[in-house]
Design brief:
The complex is a heterodimer of chains A (117) and B (119).
Chain A: E1 3-5, E2 10-14, E3 19-21, E4 24-26, E5 32-39, E6 46-52, E7 60-61, E8 64-69, E9 74-79, E10 88-96, E11 106-107, E12 111-116
Parallel strand pairs in A: 2-12
Antiparallel strand pairs in A: 1-4, 3-9, 5-6, 5-10, 7-8, 8-9, 10-11, 10-12
Chain B: E1 5-7, E2 10-13, E3 19-24, E4 31-37, E5 44-50, E6 53-57, E7 65-68, E8 75-79, E9 88-95, E10 98-100, E11 103-105, E12 109-110, E13 114-118
Parallel strand pairs in B: 2-13
Antiparallel strand pairs in B: 1-3, 3-8, 4-5, 4-9, 5-6, 7-8, 9-12, 9-13, 10-11
């Protein structure tokens, strides 16, 4: 079955510290994509970072990096130098299937991150 | 404004009534997706279009739900005979897959959502 698991319903981090949000996934497709989205209390989903299953290097976008461990089927999000504006829900998501295939994205249940001043 | 827009932002209706939501994607995006998000959960895929063709429908999309994208631009999602269990946030997203150098990208850009409350 295709599934995303996020085992941390809530996380706290001190401002300016780094934090890791966990994500594990399950798919039998050899090719897939992994995403992280941020959802602030206002409700909009904001794309953060993408990792393809065949990408050789871990993805990075500014303060966001994705710790991709293919054999363990994990795709943890690392946020460096946390800011108060990082407080939000964070969703890990997967597009099962090869590049260019249909694009149904499966989301995990989310992790609520609170940044403490 | 070049983002995805959705209308209305909020809808309150009585059980049994029909409702229709509209989504306007980013203008150059050929793919459009509908998701449903209930409180405390991640979004669940409902359906998606490539241009005007509806290519995939989730089993969550019962016979009371119908979606259209008649000219490959905006899309509508209609729920007939609403039930209290339909109360949720309905999210629309759009994308336009392509290559930038050697990197494939197809991130979906989401609209602000329509929050439906069925009384």
């Amino acid at each position: 079955a295709q599934k995303i698991t996020q085992t941390q319903p809530g996380m706290f981090v001190q401002e300016k510290e780094a934090v890791t949000l966990d994500c594990t996934y399950d798919t039998s497709d050899p090719s897939y994509g992994l995403f992280w989205y941020k959802q602030p209390s206002s409700g909009e989903m904001i794309f953060l970072i993408y990792q393809g299953s065949y990408d050789q290097q871990n993805a990075t976008e500014g303060r966001y990096s994705l710790n991709f461990q293919k054999a363990r089927k994990s795709a943890n999000l690392v946020i460096s130098a946390s800011q108060l504006g990082d407080s939000a829900m964070y969703f890990c998501a997967m597009r099962p299937g090869p590049l260019g295939s249909y694009d149904k994205v499966i989301f995990g249940p989310g992790t609520s991150l609170s940044v403490i001043p | 404004d070049t983002g995805v827009s959705q209308d209305p932002r909020h809808k309150i209706t009585k059980r049994g009534q029909n409702v229709t939501f509209r989504c306007d994607p980013i203008s150059e995006h050929n793919r459009l997706y509908w998701y449903r998000q209930t409180l405390g959960q991640g979004p669940e895929f409902l359906t998606y279009f490539q241009n005007e063709a509806q290519l995939e429908k989730s089993r969550l999309l019962s016979d009371r739900f119908s979606a259209e994208r008649p000219k490959g631009s905006f899309s509508t999602l209609e729920i007939q005979r609403t039930e209290q269990g339909d109360s949720a946030m309905y999210l629309c997203a759009s994308s336009s897959p392509g290559l930038a150098g050697h990197k494939f990208y197809n991130e979906q850009f989401f609209g602000p959502g329509t929050r439906l409350t069925v009384l």
